[in-house]
Design a protein that fits this description.
Blueprint (H helix, E strand, L loop, with lengths): L5 E5 L5 E8 L4 E9 L1 E5 L6 E9 L2 E9 L2
Antiparallel strand pairs: 1-4, 2-3, 2-5, 5-6
Length: about 70
């Protein structure tokens, strides 16, 4: 489902670290240092479109695709 205002990322075992949102041009549009198991991100400032969420679990990069729809 496309996001409208927030996206939530969670991990049941270990904290998420070094979160980034990247647009389709490869530009980082949001960067956040974190060390939490549950993260809510406000995406109101981002325009409609496809983005990639990058974060680390145990220093291993994880990428997820998501879409914002207004």
């Amino acid at each position: 489902n496309p996001a409208k205002h927030t996206i939530t990322v969670s991990s049941t075992e270990v904290p998420l670290q070094n979160l980034e949102i990247i647009n389709t041009l490869g530009q980082t549009v949001l960067s956040r240092e974190c060390n939490e198991k549950l993260i809510e991100i406000n995406v109101d400032a981002l325009t409609s479109g496809v983005y990639f969420l990058k974060y680390e679990i145990n220093h291993t990069p994880v990428f997820e695709r998501f879409e914002i729809e207004r």
